[in-house]
Write a structure and sequence with these properties.
With 504 residues, the protein is an alpha+beta fold. It is built from 15 helices and 12 strands. Strands 1-2-3-7-4-6-5 form a 7-stranded mixed sheet, with helices on both faces. Strand 1 and strand 2 form a beta hairpin. The two termini are 21 Å apart.
Length: 504
């Protein structure tokens, strides 16, 4: 397992980009992508010759709920609905401008705070970790039930769920002609979680085999070093804490999801299923629909299929507690990269300004490095447990460890003292603005807005147009902003991990 920080356009913004063919989602693994692409191809062929409109997913239409309040966001003109079951819905009418995509595709991003970190019983931790890992499995999720799959044949519909330590989400899309079926599937996702016990146990055996090689000393050390007070804190590295957050960067110390061999006997099908049911409380969610929306028609669907879902107890995370500052040195097999991880962490509430300054600071640091291919840095503002960190990683010549660590301190110290190159600062701001422009250019507009509105409304409590405002806020970042932020970061908790080649 390689533990380098992977940077790039979509990692820096931590944006789940929908840049494949129109109507196809880019998920977090190649296997899922292949499965989706294959189903899309099959669905496309069927839709040309068959009509499955009569195959409804629900045996009867739910008794609809009500819309308690409706407002219009002044900046984005999005319609915000508050439902009788506690759920919120955001509707953004956005006909597609992409000639290669039809204008009848509706994009959904539904997001809620709270995940596995809400679990307080340590004995339940293996079960909820397992549940979060297999939530979109063929054998667990309603979308993959055989009867449902048959009724979805030929329909342009996709819907996937995700649960991690801090958030829950649904992402999907559907053509307008299949929109009723899409809403039925959303309803089923919150009300029906059937599990085949035999297949569930088969999955446990499969995962036990797959994860057997993951119980390395490095994983253990990383979790003890950075998350020792939170044994159940656990996020899939590919999700970068918030896979939906368009402005987040990968943290060098995002913990890796892993199981110990001794965890597997503790996994309970009953506990896992109960946890999944708790996760899908509609009152916790904000549903964002973007596309060519007839608001009158959608209000009717929302009352029938979303407001009708019975609410339950809110899922609230425990307070996240980091361990004390620490320094570790370990020796690993040659298959692991040798390197140094450094991190400074401070308490910080999310705000659009801090977000923008942190991204410019991150770019500035990476520009001034003389060995960028061996030295990576990220400034990460975490909206889940209100902290800001600056993380660095570099590979090294064992003889130069002290020199390289000192260099990192000096680089950040110089910034904190106001030694900031104006030309480099201008390049950093320009690079972030260009990154924003490229995301807008190469992505499907509906997907961009569905994700960004969900993050702004749920995670950040910030204006819905935060994504659109980013380039202008970026230009306003000053030398003083960078100086102040670097100075504060250097006063935070400090973590250091050095990985040496195994002694011979």
């Amino acid at each position: 397992m390689k533990l380098k920080i992977i940077f790039g356009m979509f990692v820096i913004f931590c944006f789940t980009a929908f840049i494949l063919a129109c109507g196809k989602y880019k998920l977090t693994s190649e296997k899922k992508n292949n499965e989706i692409n294959q189903r899309s191809k099959q669905s496309s062929k069927l839709s040309q010759t068959h009509n499955f409109a009569d195959k409804t997913l629900l045996s009867k239409t739910p008794t609809h709920g009500t819309i308690l309040k409706e407002t219009i966001d002044k900046e984005t003109k999005a319609i915000i609905l508050e439902l009788s079951n506690g759920a919120k819905v955001i509707l953004k009418n956005l006909p597609s401008k992409d000639k290669e995509c039809s204008n009848d595709t509706i994009i959904l991003t539904a997001l809620a705070k709270g995940g596995t970190m809400a679990v307080t019983n340590k004995d339940d931790i293996p079960s909820v970790r397992f549940a979060s890992d297999i939530i979109d499995s063929y054998d667990i999720w309603p979308y993959y039930c055989q009867d449902t799959k048959n009724k979805l044949s030929g329909k342009h519909i996709s819907l996937y769920a995700h649960i991690d330590a801090f958030e829950r989400s649904l992402q999907g899309h559907a053509s307008l002609k299949d929109i009723i079926t899409f809403f039925e599937l959303i309803h089923l996702s919150f009300t029906s979680h059937n599990v085949d016990i035999g297949k569930f146990n088969d999955l446990i055996k499969s995962y036990k085999k797959d994860w057997a090689d993951q119980n390395s000393e490095l994983l253990t050390v990383r979790n003890e070093l950075f998350y020792g007070n939170n044994p159940h804190f656990n996020v899939c590295g590919s999700n970068n804490q918030s896979r939906l957050d368009f402005l987040e960067a990968t943290s060098a110390f995002v913990p890796i999801k892993y199981f110990k061999v001794t965890d597997y006997p503790k996994i309970s099908q009953k506990t896992a299923l109960e946890f999944v049911k708790k996760c899908f409380n509609p009152a916790d969610f904000t549903f964002v629909f973007v596309g060519n929306i007839d608001t009158k028609v959608f209000r009717s669907y929302i009352k029938t299929y979303v407001a009708s879902i019975a609410p339950s107890k809110a899922l609230i995370n425990q307070k996240f507690i980091r361990p004390q500052s620490s320094k570790w040195e370990i020796y690993m097999d040659n298959k692991f990269d040798s390197g140094v991880y450094l991190s400074w962490v401070i308490d910080e509430k999310y705000s659009p300004k801090i977000k923008v300054v942190s991204k410019v600071l991150e770019k500035y640091i990476n520009i001034i490095l003389d060995e960028p291919e061996k030295y990576c840095s990220a400034v990460y503002l975490n909206p889940f447990f209100d902290e800001l960190s600056i993380d660095t990683y570099f590979s090294y010549d064992p003889k130069r460890i002290k020199e390289r660590v000192s260099r990192v301190f000096k680089d950040i110290q110089n910034i904190s003292e106001g030694d900031i190159d104006i030309e480099v600062l201008a390049k950093a701001k320009g690079a972030m603005q260009e990154l924003h422009r490229r995301i807008k250019h190469y992505s499907i507009d509906a997907a961009v807005y569905a994700d960004s509105y969900a993050c702004s409304a749920v995670l950040h409590n910030s204006p819905l147009n935060e994504f659109d405002n980013f380039p202008f806020a970026c230009q306003a970042v000053s030398k003083q902003d960078l100086k102040d932020l670097a100075l504060r970061l250097l006063k935070g908790k400090y973590y250091q991990l050095i990985i040496h080649p195994k002694k011979t």
